[in-house]
Automatic annotation (TrEMBL):
<dbReference type="GO" id="GO:0016787">
    <property type="term" value="F:hydrolase activity"/>
</dbReference>
<dbReference type="InterPro" id="IPR029052">
    <property type="entry name" value="Metallo-depent_PP-like"/>
</dbReference>
<keyword id="KW-0479">Metal-binding</keyword>
<dbReference type="InterPro" id="IPR024654">
    <property type="entry name" value="Calcineurin-like_PHP_lpxH"/>
</dbReference>
<protein>
    <recommendedName>
        <fullName>Phosphoesterase</fullName>
        <ecNumber>3.1.4.-</ecNumber>
    </recommendedName>
</protein>
<comment type="similarity">
    <text>Belongs to the metallophosphoesterase superfamily. YfcE family.</text>
</comment>
<dbReference type="InterPro" id="IPR000979">
    <property type="entry name" value="Phosphodiesterase_MJ0936/Vps29"/>
</dbReference>
<dbReference type="GO" id="GO:0046872">
    <property type="term" value="F:metal ion binding"/>
</dbReference>
<feature type="domain" description="Calcineurin-like phosphoesterase">
    <location>
        <begin position="5"/>
        <end position="150"/>
    </location>
</feature>
<dbReference type="Pfam" id="PF12850">
    <property type="entry name" value="Metallophos_2"/>
</dbReference>
Length: 169
């Protein structure tokens, strides 16, 4: 049975934004699984996502301390509808990323990561797909913030869509 997914990272609430964008909250409450690749900054957002998500797969990032590191792992793994996921915050430099990550996660179909705030969707020669949803709250050098929706179905990740987050007015 198809499972709807939301991928996000680098939310930095309340440092970069007071809250997540409405479009991301809408996606979160309507999805089956939410994946967060770290840099929450405040445990209050983790509490809200746990409350509003049907299922949450998440890690801490380099800006997460205290209760966030106590409650979240540095690496998370989940098999969802036959797709093997791993989640980390940092993968290192973009140069050589696919080969490094394929060696580190050989039994993974999709690696979700964050840290750079730069949307990324590539596939390593081994078939490992690497997804960075960007940041919905801190676009840095990107034209807009982003998050990703997708569907896991019968061992395949499909309907991967990067959603632009409108700038706050």
């Amino acid at each position: 049975m198809p499972v709807s997914l939301v991928f996000t990272s680098d939310t930095h609430v309340p440092k970069r934004a007071r809250d997540l964008p409405h479009s991301l909250w809408d996606a979160i409450v309507s999805s089956d699984v939410v994946v967060h690749a770290g840099d929450w900054v405040d445990v209050a957002l983790l509490d809200l996502l746990e409350e509003r998500s049907r299922r949450l797969v998440a890690v801490y990032g380099n800006n997460d301390h205290g209760a966030l590191r106590e409650r979240l792992p540095g690496v998370a793994r989940a098999e969802i509808e036959g797709v093997r996921f791993a989640v980390v915050h940092e993968t290192g430099d973009a140069k050589g990323r696919e080969l490094r990550c394929a060696a580190r996660f050989p039994d993974t179909d999709v690696l979700v990561f964050g840290h750079s705030h730069i949307p990324w969707d590539t596939t390593a020669p081994t078939g490992l797909r690497l997804l960075n949803p960007g940041s919905p709250t801190d676009r840095r050098r990107q034209p807009h913030g982003t998050f990703v929706t997708a569907v896991a179905d019968a061992g395949q990740l499909r309907d991967v869509v990067f959603h632009a987050v409108p700038p706050r007015s």
